[in-house]
Design goal:
- There is one protein chain.
- This protein is α/β, with parallel strands linked by helices.
- The chain is built from 13 helices and 18 strands.
- The strands form 3 sheets. Strands 1, 2, 3, 4, 5, 16, 17 and 18 form an 8-stranded mixed beta sheet that branches. Strands 6-7-8-9-10-13-14-15 form an 8-stranded parallel beta sheet. It has a two-stranded parallel sheet with strand order 11-12.
Length: 424
C-alpha cells in the first residue's frame, strides 16, 4: 500500500493545532513533524492552510440495510460518510431483521465487511424486534457492537428500561436512548409551537422528549449504566442533562446540525423539514447552541435518515420522518456555530471528531499521533458551496439545507490508511 504524506497542515495534536507534516505507512500514522524527519516516500498531498483532524465520528446514522436497501445501502451510506469527512459511523438497528441476536447481527456485519469504505459500527437492539418488551442477550452481543438502542421508538415500560440498564451496565457499552413518551404525541408530527398552530398542524409537545430523559437519567444514576441520549431537541433536555452531569451521572448526549441551525419559524410545507424529534422553537435552538458551547452536549450527530423521494414528497403532514445529513453536517455546524462567531473551531473538533471517540473508546481521542490507525480528515474552512442534493452520494436527497450557501468542506478522508474521498 502506498505511503501518504500530508504536508504543511494545521494538525490537531493534544487539544490544539500545530503546523506539521503527517506521514502514513502501513495503515498507521508513522510520524508527525517536519518533512525532513518523516519516514518513507509515497503520495504527497499539500495541506497548507487547511486543518487535519482525527476522522469525524457520527454516533447516529441509518444505513437501512438489511431490509430497506431501496432507501440506502451500507455501500452508499458509507460512501456518503466518507464524502462528509467521517471515518467512523454507528448504524441504528431499525432494520429487517433487527440486530437482536448474533445471527441477525451477523447479516449486517457481513455486508459491512464487504461493502463499507469507512468503519461502520452497528448498534444492537435493547429489546427483541425493538418492541420494548423482551430483553436481548447483552453479554453475547456486546463484543460486536457500539452499544444498544431501540432508536425509532422509546422504551415505554420503565421496568423494562431499568432491567435493560442493569443488563447493559456490566458490558461497559452505552445505552443510546431514543427518548419519547408515546402517550404524549397525540398524532403530532412537527413541534407544538406557533407554526403548527398558525398552519393547522398537529404538534409534538416538548414534554414527550424531556419526561423520558428525566426517567432514564434517574435509572442510569441508580444502575451505573452509561446512558447516551439521542438527538435532543428541547431546552428542558439540555437542563436535565447539565444537572445530571454535575451530579456525576454517567450520561452523554447528542444533537443534530439541523436543531442548531433552524427553529420552527423556518419551517416550510415540505417533507425536507420533517424529522423526529422535530425542529423546535427559537428558545430551544438557542439552548441547544449553549449546550454545545459549554460541553453539556457532547457530540453532534447527523441522525442521517434517508428515504425514497416519494416518501419525502408528501408535505409536512404525510411525509416520512427523517432527513439526510452526512454530506452537509460539518459545513452546517461550521457555518452556524463557528463562522458566525458563536463558538471556537476547537469546540467543533471536539464535538464532531474527539468526544465520539472518547464515548466509544476509539483511538485518536488524544489527537493525531504516531502509532494510531490512520483515520484522518482534511478540512478546507474557506470553501463556500451551495447544497445541491443531486450531488449527494447518499441515495437520500431530503435535507433542510437544500439550496443554502455553506462554508467549510472536507476535502480528504483517509480511513484505515486508505484515501476514501478526495476533492483536492
Amino acid at each position: 500500500m502506498e505511503d501518504i504524506i500530508i504536508t504543511g497542515a494545521n494538525v490537531w495534536c493534544e487539544g490544539k493545532f500545530i503546523t506539521a507534516d503527517v506521514s502514513i505507512h502501513d495503515r498507521k500514522i508513522s510520524a508527525v513533524g517536519e518533512a525532513a524527519l518523516l519516514s518513507g516516500t509515497g503520495k504527497i498531498i499539500s495541506g497548507e492552510g487547511m486543518y487535519l483532524v482525527p476522522g469525524l465520528v457520527d454516533l447516529h446514522v441509518h444505513f437501512r440495510e438489511p431490509g430497506y436497501s431501496y432507501k440506502e445501502t451500507i455501500r452508499t451510506g458509507s460512501d456518503a460518510a466518507a464524502a462528509g469527512g467521517f471515518t467512523t459511523v454507528c448504524t441504528m438497528p431499525n432494520l429487517n431483521p433487527a440486530p437482536d441476536d448474533v445471527e441477525n447481527l451477523k447479516r449486517q456485519l457481513d455486508i459491512i465487511r464487504l461493502d463499507a469504505c469507512v468503519d461502520v459500527l452497528p448498534y444492537a437492539t435493547i429489546t427483541k424486534k425493538r418492541m420494548g418488551h423482551e430483553l436481548v442477550d447483552y453479554r453475547m452481543l456486546a463484543p460486536w457492537v457500539a452499544g444498544f438502542s431501540d432508536d425509532g421508538t422509546g422504551v415505554q415500560d420503565g421496568e423494562v428500561m431499568l432491567a435493560a440498564m442493569k443488563g447493559i451496565a456490566p458490558t461497559g457499552k452505552i445505552l443510546a436512548a431514543h427518548c419519547e413518551v408515546e402517550s404524549l404525541l397525540n398524532g403530532g408530527y412537527i413541534h407544538d409551537g406557533d407554526y403548527a398552530r398558525s398552519h393547522g398542524h398537529r404538534g409534538i409537545c416538548s414534554e414527550s422528549e424531556w419526561a423520558e430523559i428525566d426517567r432514564d437519567i434517574k435509572m442510569a444514576e441508580e444502575t451505573g449504566c452509561r446512558l447516551h441520549v439521542c438527538h435532543i431537541s428541547t431546552k428542558e433536555s439540555v437542563d436535565l442533562i447539565r444537572k445530571a452531569k454535575a451530579r456525576g451521572v454517567k450520561v452523554t448526549c447528542e444533537t443534530g446540525p439541523h436543531y442548531l441551525t433552524f427553529c420552527d419559524e423556518d419551517l416550510q410545507e415540505h417533507g425536507r423539514f420533517k424529522m423526529n424529534p422535530p425542529i423546535r422553537s427559537r428558545a430551544d435552538r438557542d439552548a441547544l447552541r449553549r449546550g454545545v458551547i459549554d460541553g453539556t452536549i457532547d457530540v453532534i450527530a447527523t441522525d442521517h435518515a434517508p428515504h425514497a423521494a416519494n416518501e419525502k414528497g408528501k408535505g409536512l403532514e404525510k411525509s416520512a420522518m427523517g432527513v439526510v445529513g452526512l454530506e452537509t453536517s460539518f459545513a452546517a455546524v461550521y457555518t452556524t456555530m463557528v463562522e458566525s462567531g458563536l463558538m471556537p473551531f476547537n469546540r467543533l473538533v471536539e464535538a464532531m471528531a474527539i468526544n465520539g471517540r472518547k464515548i466509544l473508546g476509539l483511538p485518536g481521542a488524544d489527537g493525531i499521533r504516531p502509532g494510531d490507525k490512520a483515520d484522518l480528515t482534511l478540512l478546507d474552512l474557506g470553501q463556500e458551496w451551495t447544497v445541491d442534493p443531486r450531488d449527494f452520494r447518499s441515495m437520500g436527497q431530503s435535507t433542510p439545507y437544500d439550496g443554502m450557501m455553506l462554508k467549510g468542506k472536507p476535502v480528504l478522508t483517509i480511513s484505515n490508511g486508505e484515501i476514501r474521498f478526495c476533492k483536492l
